[in-house]
Structures are given as C-alpha cells and as structure tokens.
Design brief:
The strands form three sheets. Strands 3, 4, 5, 6, 9, 10 and 11 form a seven-stranded mixed sheet that branches. Strand 1 and strand 2 form a beta hairpin. This protein folds into three domains: about 80 residues, Arc Repressor Mutant, subunit A (Orthogonal Bundle), CATH 1.10.10; about 100 residues, 3-Layer(aba) Sandwich (D-Maltodextrin-Binding Protein, domain 2), CATH 3.40.190.10; about 110 residues, Periplasmic binding protein-like II (D-Maltodextrin-Binding Protein, domain 2, 3-Layer(aba) Sandwich), CATH 3.40.190.10. The longest helix has 29 residues. Helix 1 packs across helix 2. The protein has about 300 residues and is α/β, with parallel strands linked by helices. About 45% of the residues lie in helices and about 20% in strands. GO terms for molecular function: DNA-binding transcription factor activity; transcription cis-regulatory region binding. InterPro entries: LysR-like_Sec_metab, LysR_HTH_N, LysR_subst-bd, WH-like_DNA-bd_sf, WH_DNA-bd_sf. Keywords: DNA-binding, Transcription, Transcription regulation. Belongs to the LysR transcriptional regulatory family.
Length: about 300
C-alpha cells in the first residue's frame, strides 16, 4: 500500500466512479480498476460494493478512507515542513556563548532573530570560552559566540565585533578620585584582584596583555559569575577587569569607576565559532548572517 494507491482510492471513493477518477487523475479506467483490485488483494478485504453503476464503500472501505485521508494529509504536512527546513524558516539551533556575551549580548541578538523567525527554536548554553569550544568539538553545539582565544584547528572563527575590557574599582576605592591615566600597571601588583576562573576569555586576555609588561596579578578572589564580580567590586573587595558591555548601568550610576591604565588597554574581539565540518543549513547561515548584521547596528 503506497501513497499513489491511496490517492486513487480516495478519489474513487469520492467520485463513486472509476471512470470519473480516471478522468480526474489523467489515467485510464483499466489502470484505476487494477489499482483498486491490487489494493483489495494486498489488504485481503473488499473496499467497494457495486450497485447500479456506482461504487459504494464497504465498512472496511469506509475505515480505510478515514485512514487514507489522514495519511495523505500528514504526508503533505511533512513535505511542507521539510520545505520550511530547507529554506531555513523552521528548525532548531544549539547556541553557545561565553559568559559576558551570554548575559549582555545574546538576549537582544536572539530576540531580534526570533522576531523574524517565529518557528525557530533556539537552545542556549552559557559558559566560559573553553567549555563552549569543547562542546563545539563534541558536536553538542551548532555555533558559539565567544571572546576568548580558541585553540583547536578544527574550529572556524569569524569576526563579529570589537570589545574592550575596562579596569574598574568601587567608588569607595582610592583610585576613584585619581586623574585619568594616573594608575601605572605596576600599581596592579599591590591590589587585591577579583578574577574570573581559568578558561575564561576575560581572564585570558588580561593575563596575555599584562604578561607583555611582565606584570603578575594577585588574584585574591576567583569568581565565575560576572554579576557576583560586580557586586564584589561595589563592596570594595578588590578591583577587576570586565567588558564594557557588562558595566554600562554601574558606570552610569557611578557605583563603579572606570580606571584607565597609563599607556595600556585591553581590546579583544568577539568571535563566532563553529566546527569546520559543520554542515551549513539555511537556518545556520541565516543565524550567522544575522549575528554579523546585528554587530553593525
């Protein structure tokens, strides 16, 4: 029993005539008759009674008619759905983001993408860069957006946007009233530093830049949560480096203070990453393009 047989059967049941079915489906009447006969033999039941040149469904035929209509409808629905996947208007993406991006950038990015693609389902994993890279290598994520260094040669990186890390302190800290660029890198060595955990892109960038100046930090506190770090800084437990994306409200309210370092800055790149063997579906390509357009806004 196949879809062609069921379509011919449905038409015959509705027209009550093999001749009309043949005309409607551009077939010969013997071909229609043979199809119905084959179907009856396959199912070992009689599907039609024949009265006065008209065909009438038997009880078995009536039951099959209901099933056949549902099967054809489901088949058509499946074809339509697959076409939506093909053109990228339906589907699911597993998205990873490093902590800063996941908290302060991804929500707006995802919302703007979903507003144009309401049938798309997005799953999110927020963790540090090292974890996101590892999940992509394991094919557990489709795409990632990170700020840290990616180490695997199996990962493709695409520039998304530029970012910068700011040295910040509490408004209660003695640095809060210093003149711009009055703080030297050597001053950091005497400070309590609130650091991100190992594997964090933020920590890696800070350590890379300071190593060029032969500066080693005194990491008094280690936290893996940006909001917790900001609260610790506000409480004057130490100073830290955070993305400018993460501290706009606190800077505006003067709860924390940006402390420019003399002749040194901490620029970094936010990158889109994915496995080099990743099949780029239309949905994947659409999201990738959206990320790049979002960054230009």
């Amino acid at each position: 029993m196949n879809q062609r047989q069921l379509s011919i059967f449905i038409s015959t049941a509705e027209t009550k005539s093999m001749t009309k079915t043949a005309h409607d489906l551009y077939m010969t009447q013997p071909a229609v008759s043979q199809t119905i006969s084959d179907l009856e033999q396959q199912l070992n039941v009689q599907l039609f009674d024949r009265f006065k040149r008209q065909l009438h469904l038997t009880d078995a035929g009536d039951t099959l008619y209901d099933y056949a209509k549902r099967i054809i409808a489901l088949t058509d629905e499946a074809k339509t759905t697959m076409q939506e996947y093909e053109i990228g208007t339906k589907g699911k993406l597993q998205i990873g983001a490093s902590t800063t991006i996941g908290i302060y950038l991804l929500p707006q990015l995802a919302a703007s993408f979903r507003s144009k693609n309401e049938q798309i389902h997005l799953n999110y994993t927020i963790n540090n860069t090292r974890v996101i890279e590892d999940l992509i290598l394991k094919h557990e994520l489709d795409i990632g957006i990170v700020e840290g260094t990616v180490h695997s040669k199996d990962i493709i990186e695409t520039h998304m946007m530029d970012d910068e890390l700011f040295l910040i302190c509490s408004h209660l800290h003695e640095w809060a009233t210093k003149e711009p660029d009055a703080i030297e890198t050597t001053d950091l060595q005497n400070e309590s530093i609130i650091a991100r955990e190992k594997g964090s892109g933020t920590r890696e960038v800070v350590e890379q830049v300071l190593s060029l100046h032969k500066i080693t930090l005194n990491n008094t506190h280690t936290l893996n949560n940006t909001e917790a770090i900001k609260k610790a800084v506000e409480a004057n437990l130490g100073v830290t480096f955070l993305s400018k994306l993460a501290i706009q409200d606190e800077l505006s309210d003067k709860r924390i203070i940006h402390v420019p370092l003399k002749q040194i800055s901490f620029p970094r790149t936010l990158k889109i990453i994915y496995h080099k063997d990743k099949y780029m579906t239309p949905l994947f390509q659409s999201f990738l393009n959206h990320c790049q357009q979002f960054a230009l806004q």
